[in-house]
Design brief:
The protein has about 270 residues and is of the alpha/beta class. It is about 30% helix and about 20% strand.
Amino acid sequence: MKLAGLLLALAAVCGGQTHTGLTYAKVGDRELKLDLYLPSGNGPHPLLVWVHGGAWRAGDRAQTPARFLTQHGYAVASISYRLSQVAQYPAQIDDCKAAVKWLRDHGSEYKLNTRRIAAWGSSAGGHLVALLGVMSQVDAVIDFFGPTDFLRMNDVKGAMDHDAPHSPESQLVGGPIQQNQDKVAKASPLTYVNKGDPPFLIVHGDADPLVHFTQSQFLDKALRAAGVPVELVILPGAGHGGPAFNAPEIRQKVVQFLDRNIRDAR
């Protein structure tokens, strides 16, 4: 295939325009950026915000599995945020909130329908999008294997000691989590759950060695108790990420959830 034909084929798969490196906020000398992937068509396009994982200390907004949603008519904003070696919590959720605000403020420039916005993230990103939901910043949440109760992450023995001083959770709050329970409570989605929260889709593997699936069960139970619409999907044999989370049936479930709660919601 000639280069021109290849580029046309890629455009057909990936959708419409791409805007990379858009600055959504500035903290000191640090610019916080996002990438915006638009579907084909005139819009306004329903919007999903992707928040990457990486234990709050690594990760890259360029590596987003959500980009396939442009084929279904959704715009996808993949955001960066300050990592824990740069700033402790609540910097991370503050950055996510700032990104959502910027998208709302600039939606018309990029043909976005910002009346209802969804957020999707995995692992640390799953934790942050859950917080966005229970803090009333977005209108639907897709949480893939995100931590929800740091103090109980060692309830089931896994591949990591989460209570250790250098665990990702301890680095996020600035000290061993069991010795900083007030800070941990402020970083827990469970603290903020209430009956007005948006619908949640939660997906977790039952063989996850880093974030045990009970973490998703805690959030599911709290949301149900508050009367919030929630669906919890436990994937047999799946670990902390991997092909199971990109399977056609999971992608279809994501699209159906978004269609129901973002595109078709009134």
